[in-house]
User: Which sequence fits this backbone?
């Protein structure tokens, strides 16, 4: 009597080896979520990158993840997830190596775009491959191991970035992806089996072709509006293009058979509430880690490795908290943990508003620890809440849409917070320099900004710009940075508060119904 596919999977001794190979290849994508934050000062110094360009180093990656998640998943379904994942891993490794060789911020941003596209491939194919290799009764355990390995990548990212910046170069934060991919190939290639092709799946190329430039125009309008002027033709043109393209995207998605985002999901109050949380959490994560890394190194002058260790509580709590509260979420329901997480995030933003250049390390760790606790509480509970109104077979679709919403919140949140930061920082610095009778050109100002993480070089640069005043000017730059930092944290506090109110209004007195 022939064995069933399930029996063959249970008897397959290579399934655990396949799991390790799949997890390692996905591990590097999660590392890249957080490793870049601690190397930003090195990128800024060596490539003379502006604050806008540093934001694009983050946002280019997030933008491509946002627009490509569902599409790359469909491509894997059609052509085979094993084949598509390995093709994506090769290109991801090549893009990482090229990023390490970057001669300019623009080149690095282009490499990050490619990393984002291929990272979406790796993440969407990985879960399907894990489920393909394990019978249903083992899938929960296999996915837990997969999430632990990839979650460890997110947790270790800041430490690795700090170590590379301290003892080698920020470029190694990208080079390191290459040997990890090679090891993942060596372990997984003999064990990973191809998935059946699903020819009935279709790729929404029209929606993708409209969403990508629409999101890009929106981010550019927000990030460049302060520089161009909010009423300038450039800003208004970009904003108009974003409105038209994203409006067209919504219309297209209502009409295609297999859209990138199924908007009917938002008719369920619980899913809508989780989407609000995804937007605020995505923005908090990207903004919080971006500015915290700069604060630790450019203002506090912490060595990069120490800065990485100080950021570790954020990612570590994201890994530790979900398994600790998993059973409580099942017993008590997810919404109270979502609210608790929102409170932790709001208090974290409030604490960080009062950060000073010489704030006690304990205060800094408390602020960042509350950030990680809030993130962990919502990470553990939002997926449960989001999928609860729907039938189990729709879970992967629901999570895919929620993740896309999360990425939109990340990109837009960083763009808005970056604009707030730059506006307040420039205003504060101009006022301080004027009060001290110092005149400094925009080019010299940019030079000093790029060297703040290296006080000795900044001191030398200032001695050439304003001889005799270097000891007086450097603290002004740091005080101006903190003014902008406080503004970015106020933005996070306001969005967290609004998000909490909206979730309360949406879910008040409602019970989810399976659909």
Assistant:
């Amino acid at each position: 009597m022939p064995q069933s596919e399930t029996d063959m999977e249970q008897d397959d001794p290579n399934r655990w080896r396949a799991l390790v190979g799949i997890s390692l290849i996905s591990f590097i994508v999660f590392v890249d979520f957080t490793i870049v934050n601690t190397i930003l000062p090195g990128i800024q110094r060596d490539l003379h990158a502006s604050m806008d360009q540093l934001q694009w180093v983050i946002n280019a990656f997030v933008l491509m993840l946002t627009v490509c998640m569902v599409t790359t998943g469909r491509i894997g379904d059609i052509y085979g997830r094993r084949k598509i994942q390995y093709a994506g891993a090769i290109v991801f490794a090549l893009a990482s190596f090229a990023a390490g060789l970057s001669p300019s911020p623009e080149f690095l941003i282009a490499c990050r775009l490619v990393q984002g596209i291929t990272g979406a491939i790796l993440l969407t194919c990985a879960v399907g491959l894990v489920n393909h290799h394990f019978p249903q009764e083992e899938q929960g355990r296999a996915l837990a191991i997969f999430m632990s390995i990839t979650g460890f990548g997110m947790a270790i990212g800041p430490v690795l970035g700090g170590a590379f910046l301290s003892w080698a170069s920020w470029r190694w934060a990208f080079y390191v992806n290459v040997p990890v991919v090679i090891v993942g190939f060596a372990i997984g290639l003999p064990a990973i089996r191809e998935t059946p092709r699903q020819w009935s799946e279709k790729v929404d190329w029209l929606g993708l072709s409209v969403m990508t430039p629409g999101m890009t125009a929106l981010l550019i309008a927000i990030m460049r509006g302060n520089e161009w002027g909010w009423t300038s033709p450039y800003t208004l043109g970009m904003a108009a293009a974003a409105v038209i393209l994203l409006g067209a995207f919504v219309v297209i998605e209502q009409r295609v058979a297999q859209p990138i985002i199924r908007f009917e999901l938002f008719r369920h109050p619980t899913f809508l509430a989780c989407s609000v949380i995804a937007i605020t959490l995505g923005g908090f994560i990207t903004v919080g880690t971006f500015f915290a890394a700069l604060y630790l190194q450019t203002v506090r002058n912490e060595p990069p490795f120490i800065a990485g260790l100080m950021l570790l509580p954020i990612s570590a709590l994201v890994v530790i908290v979900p398994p600790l509260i998993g059973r409580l979420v099942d017993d008590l329901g997810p919404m109270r943990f979502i609210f608790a997480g929102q409170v932790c995030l709001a208090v974290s933003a409030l604490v960080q508003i009062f950060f000073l250049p010489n704030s006690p390390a304990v205060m800094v760790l408390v602020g960042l620890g509350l950030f990680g606790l809030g993130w962990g509480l919502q990470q553990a509970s939002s997926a449960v809440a989001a999928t609860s109104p729907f039938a189990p077979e729709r879970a992967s679709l629901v999570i895919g849409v929620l993740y896309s919403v999360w990425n939109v919140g990340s990109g837009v949140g960083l763009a808005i917070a970056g604009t707030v930061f730059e506006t307040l920082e420039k205003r504060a610095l101009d006022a301080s320099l004027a009060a001290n009778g110092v005149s400094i050109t925009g080019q010299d100002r940019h030079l000093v900004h790029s060297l703040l993480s290296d006080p000795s070089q900044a001191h030398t640069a200032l001695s050439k710009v304003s001889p005799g005043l270097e000891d007086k000017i450097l603290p002004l730059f740091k005080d101006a940075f903190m003014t902008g930092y406080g503004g970015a944290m106020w933005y996070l506090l306001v969005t967290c508060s609004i998000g909490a109110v909206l979730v309360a209004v949406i879910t008040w007195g409602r019970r989810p119904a399976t659909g």
